[in-house]
Specification:
Helices cover about 35% and strands about 20% of the residues. It has about 250 residues and is α/β, with parallel strands linked by helices. It has one domain: Alpha/Beta hydrolase fold, catalytic domain (Rossmann fold), CATH 3.40.50.
């Protein structure tokens, strides 16, 4: 099935051109859809005062790598090429996502850099960035915090298979890209009790070392998928608010 998208228009009336955010949902490339992240996208639209294009990409087991990547890139390129219909500010186009969607946003940012296409920002919430190894937080937070070590391994294998050489590709492991220079400004959020915490931290460090504009925060007390918990957890709402505020600053 081709990628589907939803245009979010919640927010104050706009009298001029607006920033645009292309959002990719999480779910381990297996679950998640436009509905599971509709509240997140509406909050993003309101608080960033941007047009939000939410993307539903093909998923495993029917469609493994590179189907999700191809869909996310296709939609982002389409929005860029037809920006007048999606906000109108080509110089204020951003990508965003959580979990698997954050991975696809990171890959989109690398691709746009390589193709010399402008991108104003990337928002990555608890991104998986390394398919080749388990970072310490995978063992530290292996069980009891929603995303488990076993489930993470199932997600990785379902999307990428078992071939290590394939997994070393930057399109699967953005952390292993040979060059992180000149990437779009990044807002990266990680959670204390998340198996993916350390690879998100490592990606933020790699971008900072390459000279990128990076905002990174590890949110104490939170677990994976906190973006979806903003309605029930004050700590998750505070984290989401801070990340969206940082994105809004870069799209102002």
């Amino acid at each position: 099935m081709p990628a589907r998208s939803r245009y979010a228009s919640t927010g104050p009336p706009r009298t001029d051109r607006s920033p645009t955010v292309v959002f990719f949902h999480g779910g381990g490339w297996v679950t998640g859809d436009l509905d599971t992240h509709d509240d997140v996208c509406r909050l993003l639209c309101r608080d960033v005062n941007a047009v939000v294009v939410a993307v539903h990409y093909r998923r495993v087991p029917e469609d493994p790598f590179p189907a999700a990547m191809d869909d996310c890139l296709a939609v982002t390129r389409h929005v860029a090429d037809h920006i007048d219909a999606y906000g109108g500010r080509r110089d204020r186009l951003a990508v965003a996502g959580d979990s698997a969607g954050a991975h696809e946003a990171a890959v989109a940012a690398l691709t746009f850099r390589d193709e010399q296409l402008p991108l104003a920002a990337q928002l990555l919430a608890y991104p998986p960035t390394d398919f080749t190894t388990d970072h310490p937080s995978v063992t530290e937070n292996a069980d009891g915090y929603f995303l488990t070590k076993d489930l993470l391994h199932d997600f990785r294998t379902g999307y990428a298979g078992d071939d290590l050489e394939t997994r070393r590709s930057w399109q699967l492991s953005p952390l292993l890209a040979t060059d992180h220079r000149e990437l779009a400004p990044a807002i990266i959020g990680t959670a204390q009790y998340d198996p993916l915490r350390d690879e998100g931290r490592a990606y933020a460090a790699a971008l900072e070392e390459a000279g990128a504009d990076v905002f990174h925060r590890t949110y104490d007390g939170l677990i994976h998928a906190y973006l979806n918990l903003f309605g029930v957890s004050p700590a998750a709402k505070a984290a989401t608010d801070e990340m969206f505020t940082e994105l809004a600053r870069r799209l102002a």
